[in-house]
Write a structure and sequence with these properties.
Helix content is 44%, strand content 15%. By secondary structure, the chain is α+β, with helices and mostly antiparallel strands. The strands form nine sheets. The protein has a five-stranded mixed beta sheet with strand order 1-23-22-21-20, covered by helices on one side. Strands 7, 8, 9, 10 and 11 form a five-stranded antiparallel beta sheet that branches. Helix 23 packs antiparallel against helix 25. It starts with 20 loop residues before the first helix and ends with a helix. One of its GO terms (molecular function) is structural constituent of nuclear pore. Residues 589-605 have a biased composition (Polar residues). Residues 576-613, 963-995 are annotated as: Disordered.
Length: 1303
């Protein structure tokens, strides 16, 4: 029985897309190209260094002195009276009630701070520490195991491999006498999505003496290192390890600020000569492995932790005096007091800027931007001032500026300044450039928020991305690009009265607030928002709200959708400036052109400031709309609307995280093991797919954005139409008016076409993401293991872009592997098929679902216990497979049928597949017309059918091998799927199955399948079985093949077929053709045999029916050819060894008597010449006598003696004795006797005896001899001397008579 093949699905792989597939592919390619240009454009926003003009200026720069640096949007004349809030006050949570009571026990020291990574706040009262959830005030934990006052608190990560896995964090507490590390564990949330409960282990993991170093601040690195800033101005590191060694303890403290010689200086001397400058702030730039310190006197130091984060080298330090001096030299008009004191240091991550590494904020709110490396990406070597950013209030018309600052923070381009309004109240300043991402210089909005208490701590909370916002390692784009995938940034302000959570509003949040405040979309504020952000960007922001499916946002979504339609503009055609070779409008947005630039809109707005980059050439028309002849040669611009550009922008930004990312990544669970796992999580894929679904619904709701399919035109057709529309007449004005209208109509048409492409791309991409999500949910490494090595290698390199635009085959293979996993486990595919149909209907179509059901039934049939159940399942599987036969991976499905021993089912399925792939029988027409090269459609149809028939032929070959007891080599003959499983039947069973398959084929009416099987029989050497076929297609096949094949095999089969079918005359004609064909593939012996068989066939035909005159003539012609061929055979025998060329010629053709005679004459074959003359019936006595003389001369010369010559003479004379005209006895006798006399050959009577032996009668011999003797030839004188008697003639005949029987 056949070996079980590898389980795999087998639907629609390798098959063309649906009839609309070509149009879909064109739409995907067009929209995909536009999408990629937009994705590239989102990486071209000015960087922080560009906006600070770092690099363009050789010296540090300054900003903040002009009104444009901090534009006012709330004034009556400012940008439409738009007032944007940047920050909103969230909920206020008081301190836990039980915690407030502990303030009554305060004696020495009280501190407060935040652990943002755990959503917790902390409070120390003397030697106790309390930690709680700041958003709810719940989950209060405390630690009271210390006896001394706590001076510093820090939450750090543990070093890998030191502690057990349940210890997720370390709480570092420093007192005047010791430093302890406590283990922190997090239990599972009580409710799904709720906060985890925090537990502090009661026993310290490590404890070390402080040795007089009063720790003031603690910070940790991602790798688990713990740094301590001390009152003595030194930077310490707390080093711990799992075990103690000879040279190091398990926990020790290292001073990174002192040199190796400092241990030789007495402590009282170092204290006397040193000026104490406590370290107040430590900051770690985890993206670059750099540590910054800030001291009480404003000194900033830089420590390089190395590429691996395990080193500590101080590379630079700047005192506050040096910082003020450097800043004063740049901003000479600014009071130097604004540059001190140093209030805060904040690292700038590598994702935010490659050229700026640190922001220092002073007590006046001035931000000083520093770089530490001479080149981007280099290790820190110095601390150089690059830019000074003054706070609001330094412009000429400024009315207020921050004052009395006591706290500052900088994070991701946002500066937070906390100013004391009174002893109990603070004011928060927020400065951010998120509203101006495309500005060529740093432009920020300012907002203030009153805080109800004095702030003790202010920290940004970790970001809350809904999905990965950009590929790993990519520079961070502006917020406008990623706002759809990020929740608002949050900050926590902590005081002794409670916690207040603050939210920084994204542009979409600001638009939400404007819509809610106005209660309608058609307001001046909303219109001003579109002006501020430009139509395209504002439309993309609108879509975030319009696509919301939250029930509470229903009204808001409707307003946003309305605003999108109101202010999104219309596509336009704009004439270029006179003499322009091509348009270069700074407002043009060409999504059909080479690139796209952010902040650039489609509708020109003269009042709008120019964007940061010039637009690329948009879609150009062949003539301008102006009647001015100077513009006639310049093409016009089609400018898409903000709605169009916003839709593309939003779709591009949704797909940004995955579009250029790999679909899978390698993961090694152990040595020597490499698995392919999904690069994106199932949650990310689900979120992206859901967002695309919402956008697709919005597109479906608006018919102006979605024209019918029949109304679409290609870009080339659009250009042609515009060429014809824009021909202007003599007057020009009327033509120009018509041209404007037609321009507008064609611009609308172009926009609709582009949006149609976008809709198709969104729908298909959503389904591809759905497919990858399903594969991810089913363990990607398990599914991909079923792929071939070639497919696995291709998948490793494939991005989501590739999978979407050109990866249909890979999608099919993934689905096949997924379904195959279920089938191999004997599981039902109904659930996964329904899931695939729901999430990826374009990839997994209804036919695919039917195919999976068929495969499932085939698997069940193989495991069925009863024959009846097996037959039922096989029948159902075959019926299902035949329904979708045209889209199947036929070879894989047929392998499953073979594994179930349903060989006849394979034939039925192949017949069904061939019919569905070529329903009009184009292939048959192509075949019957001789397969013309110009019939491309017929050739393709023929190939399609041939692919189907190959499955049957391979199955037959496997059965034949099994019937002979042979097995196929395990080495594959070609790349791709493994070869079809061979049947493991006994030889007799395999032979019977092969016969059944052949019978099933012969019963079909598919002529091309017959032809394929006939050819297979010929190749397999089954000619005898082929001749047994009784089919109306066998004779045309043999006739066609015999004319096309170069050899004689098909002609041999053809005459045998005619002979077996009783058509003897046709067989004779084929045999005659075989005999007469030119070439060495048939030798002369076979030619003679063919002619002989042809003669017999004609005679048999005459016996069956009354012979026509033509048959008699044909028979006579054949008989003559046989006679000549036999003579040719004699010539061939005589020529052997004499002339290879002659042998080749004699074997290659049937020669006529003239050619034969010439050949014999050239070779000196007199006997053959004589035979040819006889055969031809040529009666030329002189020629015959001459041939005999030459023949006898050669014979006698070769023999040498009478004894040797006599038999040859006898044989030769006997051959022609019955034809006197060709056997001249007188010439023969005279020549023999003359030769005998001259050479004294004995006995003298040998010649006469030889002739008598040949059948010449004595009277005839006597008459000949008497005639010769009576001529008195001198020859007889010699002859007489040989005999003793006087009469030599008597002596001869006496001898002859004595040998004869006397009568």
């Amino acid at each position: 029985m056949p070996a079980s093949p590898a389980v795999s699905m087998s639907f629609s792989g390798g098959r063309p897309l649906a009839p609309a597939g070509a149009g879909l592919q064109e739409a995907l390619s067009a929209a995909g190209a536009t999408l990629e240009r937009l994705l590239a454009a989102d990486t071209q926003f000015p960087s922080l260094a560009d906006r600070l003009r770092i690099g363009s200026q050789p010296c540090p720069t300054v900003s903040g002195l002009h009104e444009a640096d901090y534009p006012s949007l709330g004034a009556a004349g400012g940008r439409g009276g738009l007032g944007l809030r940047q920050i909103s006050a969230g909920k206020k949570v008081p301190l836990p009630a039980e915690l407030v009571e502990h303030f009554n026990h305060l004696q020495c020291n009280c501190m407060m701070g935040l652990f943002p990574e755990l959503d917790r706040a902390w409070l120390t009262i003397d030697n106790d520490i309390y930690v709680w959830l700041f958003e709810t005030g719940a989950n209060l934990a405390y630690y009271d195991g210390l006896s001394e006052t706590i001076l510093a608190v820090g939450l750090v990560r543990p070093r890998p491999g030191v502690f057990q896995a349940h210890i997720q964090h370390l709480l570092c507490l420093a007192t005047p006498l010791e430093i302890v590390l406590l283990g922190v564990t997090m239990s599972r949330p009580a409710a799904p999505g709720g906060p985890a409960e925090m537990h502090v282990l009661p026993e310290p993991l490590f404890s070390i003496a402080s040795d007089g170093a009063y720790v003031t601040t603690v910070v940790g690195t991602p790798s688990g290192r713990v740094f301590l800033g001390a009152k003595d101005g030194c930077l310490y590191e707390l080093v711990y390890q799992a075990t103690e060694s000879w040279f190091s303890r398990r926990c020790r403290k290292i001073n990174h600020s002192s040199s190796a010689l400092s241990v030789l200086v007495p402590t009282f001397l170092s204290a006397a000569f040193s000026d104490e400058d406590p370290l107040l702030q430590l900051q770690v730039d985890a993206s670059r492995n750099v540590l910054y310190t800030r001291s009480e006197k404003g000194t900033v130091q830089v420590y390089d932790l190395g590429d691996d984060g395990q080193q500590t080298v101080r590379v630079a330090a700047l005192s506050q005096f040096s910082i003020v001096q450097a800043a004063e030299g740049v901003a000479r008009t600014v009071d130097p007091s604004n540059f001190r004191p140093v209030l805060d240091i904040s690292p700038v991550t590598a994702a935010e800027s490659a050229h700026v590494q640190l922001v220092v904020t002073t007590g006046a709110g001035v931000r000083l931007y520093f770089s530490t490396a001479p080149t981007a990406g280099g290790r820190p070597t110095s601390l150089q001032l690059r830019h000074i950013r003054l706070p609001p209030g330094f412009a000429a018309n400024a009315t207020q500026r921050p004052a009395a600052l006591h706290m500052a923070r900088y994070s991701d381009g946002t500066a937070l300044l906390v100013a004391a309004q009174s002893e109990e109240l603070d004011v928060l300043w927020l400065l951010s450039g998120d509203a101006f991402p495309a500005a060529g210089q740093l432009t920020e909005l300012q907002s203030t928020l009153a805080l109800d208490w004095h702030t003790w701590a202010l920290q940004p909370l970790p970001e809350r991305p809904l999905v990965r916002c950009e590929p790993a390692g990519a520079p961070r784009p502006p917020l406008v690009v990623t706002q759809h995938a990020r929740l608002p940034r949050r900050y926590v302000a902590l005081s002794t009265r409670g916690v207040q959570v603050l939210e920084q509003l994204r542009p979409v949040d600001q638009l939400r607030a404007l819509l809610e405040d106005a209660g309608r979309p058609d307001s001046d504020a909303v219109r001003a928002f579109f002006t501020l952000h430009t139509e395209a960007q504002a439309c993309a922001t609108c879509l975030i709200l319009a696509c919301s499916d939250a029930p509470q946002d229903a009204q808001l979504a409707a307003w946003a959708e309305r605003a999108f339609l109101l202010y999104g503009g219309e596509p336009q055609v704009v004439a270029p400036p006179a003499g322009a070779g091509h348009p270069a409008s700074p407002h043009s947005t060409s999504l059909l052109g080479a690139s796209f630039h952010p902040q650039q809109v489609s509708t020109p707005q003269p009042s709008r400031p120019a964007p940061f980059a010039a637009g690329s050439p948009p879609l150009a028309l062949s003539a301008a709309v102006s009647p001015d002849t100077s513009l006639a040669a310049a093409p016009a611009e089609v400018l898409f609307s903000g709605k169009h550009d916003g839709l593309y922008l939003y779709a591009a930004r949704l797909l940004r995280p995955v579009w250029a990312s790999r679909v899978v990544r390698e993961f090694s669970p152990g040595p020597g093991q490499v698995h392919l796992v999904s690069a994106a999580s199932s949650e990310e894929l689900g979120w992206l797919s859901g967002q695309l679904e919402l956008l697709s619904r919005l597109l479906q709701r608006h018919s102006p954005l979605q024209p019918p399919f029949a109304d679409t035109v290609s870009t080339q057709q659009l250009q042609q139409r515009m060429n014809s529309y824009l021909e202007q007449d003599e007057g020009g004005r009327m033509a120009a008016g018509r041209g404007h209208h037609l321009h507008h109509q064609q611009a609308l048409q172009a926009e609709r076409q582009s949006l149609l492409h976008l809709r198709e791309l969104i729908a298909y991409t959503r389904q591809v993401l759905g497919l990858v999500k399903i594969v991810t949910d089913h363990q990607t490494h398990v599914v991909t293991e079923a792929l071939s090595r070639e497919d696995q290698s291709a998948l490793r390199l494939m991005t989501f872009r590739d999978l979407t635009l050109s990866g249909r085959t890979m999608c099919t293979q993934l689905i096949a592997a997924l379904i195959g996993r279920y089938l191999s486990d004997n599981g039902s595919t109904e659930a996964v098929s329904a899931q695939l149909r729901a999430l990826a209907p374009a990839v997994f179509r209804e036919e695919d679902a039917i195919s999976s059901q068929a495969s499932e039934k085939l698997m069940a049939a193989r495991n069925a216990s009863s024959p009846s159940e097996r037959q039922r399942l096989l029948g159902e599987a075959l019926a299902l497979a035949k329904r979708v036969a045209g889209q199947l991976q036929l070879a894989a499905v047929c392998q499953q049928f073979q594994a179930a021993h349903d060989y006849e089912g394979v034939v039925e399925l192949v017949l069904a597949a061939a019919e569905k792939r070529d329903p009009q029988e184009v292939a048959l027409h192509y075949y019957r017309n001789g397969e013309p090269a110009e019939d491309l459609q017929g050739r393709q149809a023929f190939r399609e059918r041939d692919e189907c028939y190959t499955v049957v032929l391979e199955m037959l070959s496997a059965l034949v091998r099994a019937s002979h007891g042979q097995r196929q080599s395990p080495v594959p003959a070609r790349p791709g799927a493994p070869p079809a499983a061979e049947p493991a039947d006994q030889p007799q069973q395999a032979q019977r199955q092969a016969e059944r398959v052949i019978d099933a084929v012969l019963k079909s009416r598919d002529e091309l399948l017959h032809v394929a099987v006939y050819n297979w029989m010929v190749v397999e050497g089954m000619s005898e079985r082929l001749l047994q076929v009784r089919s109306p297609y066998i004779e045309p096949f043999l006739t066609r093949s015999s004319g096309a094949a170069p050899g004689v095999q098909m002609l041999d089969l053809l005459w045998k077929h005619y002979e077996r079918s009783g058509n003897h005359l046709a067989a004779a004609k084929v045999l005659a053709k075989l005999a007469e064909r030119h070439g060495t593939d048939v030798d002369l012996a076979r030619r003679i045999e063919y002619l002989a068989r042809a003669v017999l066939c004609v005679k048999s035909s005459q016996m069956q029916v009354a012979a026509a005159a033509s048959q008699g003539e044909f028979l006579h012609e054949l008989e003559e050819k046989v006679e000549v061929a036999r003579v040719q055979w004699r010539v061939l025998e005589a020529a052997r060894g004499r002339s290879p060329e002659a042998e080749t010629r004699l074997n290659a053709d049937l020669l006529d008597v003239t050619a034969l005679y010439s050949l014999c004459e050239r070779l000196g074959l007199a006997r053959c010449q004589l035979a040819i003359v006889v055969c031809a019936g040529h009666r030329d006595a002189a020629l015959v006598r001459d041939l005999w003389r030459r023949l006898l001369a050669a014979l006698l010369q070769q023999a040498g003696s009478a004894e040797a010559a006599a038999p040859a003479v006898t044989e030769l004379a006997r051959e022609y004795r019955g034809q006197p005209a060709y056997c001249p006895l007188d010439t023969i006798v005279r020549h023999l006797e003359e030769h005998s006399c001259r050479h004294s050959m004995t006995p003298p009577e040998w010649a006469a005896a030889a002739l008598a032996e040949a059948g010449v009668s004595l009277p005839e011999l006597l008459s000949v001899y008497q005639s010769l003797y009576s001529q008195d030839d001198p020859l007889w004188t010699v002859f007489q001397s040989l005999y003793s008697q006087d009469d030599p003639l008597w002596t001869v005949f006496q001898s002859l008579y004595s040998q004869d029987d006397p009568l």
